[in-house]
Write a structure and sequence with these properties.
The chain has 128 residues and is an alpha+beta fold. The chain contains four helices and six strands, in the order H-H-E-E-H-E-E-E-E-H. The chain has a six-stranded mixed sheet. Helix 1 packs antiparallel against helix 2. The radius of gyration is 14 Å and the shape is globular. The termini are far apart.
Length: 128
């Protein structure tokens, strides 16, 4: 698989809650960084920490949550994904759209690092 195909497969695994696929696509010690100010923002290490602390938590707190991929760019061992989060918060029932860029670093056919740049205000506004 190419780096872009791996990144697209990561998005598909998250969308389908196929966490076994997510584990296979990531290095065991993947470093996952989300914006400070973003819900569950901070750094997680390892696929299990990402699955439990990010994906499963968002599934509990949002009635819908997805990342709509608009463009994918590749440079060497890095892939940049441009798009937007869309969601409805479970408690407030507010809808939101937040532009976001994701930077993936890959090595040996695995995601070794992820870094998020997102409009945290749009997300936080939906939560209040």
């Amino acid at each position: 698989m190419t780096n872009i195909e791996i990144v697209r497969a990561v998005y598909a695994s998250v969308r389908e809650s196929d966490y076994d696929a997510f584990r296979r696509l990531c290095a065991p010690d993947v470093i996952w960084t989300q914006n400070k100010g973003f819900p569950q923002g901070g750094v997680r290490v390892g696929a299990e920490a990402v699955i439990d602390g990010v994906f499963r938590r968002f599934a509990r707190e949002w009635t819908s949550w997805r990342y709509e991929l608009e463009q994918v760019l590749e440079s060497g061992n890095q892939v940049v994904a441009l798009g937007a989060y869309h969601g409805v918060h479970a408690q407030t029932n507010k809808r939101m759209k937040a532009d976001a860029a994701h930077v993936f670093r890959l090595a040996d056919g695995k995601v070794v690092a992820f870094r998020q740049f997102a409009d945290t205000k749009a997300v936080c506004d939906a939560m209040q």
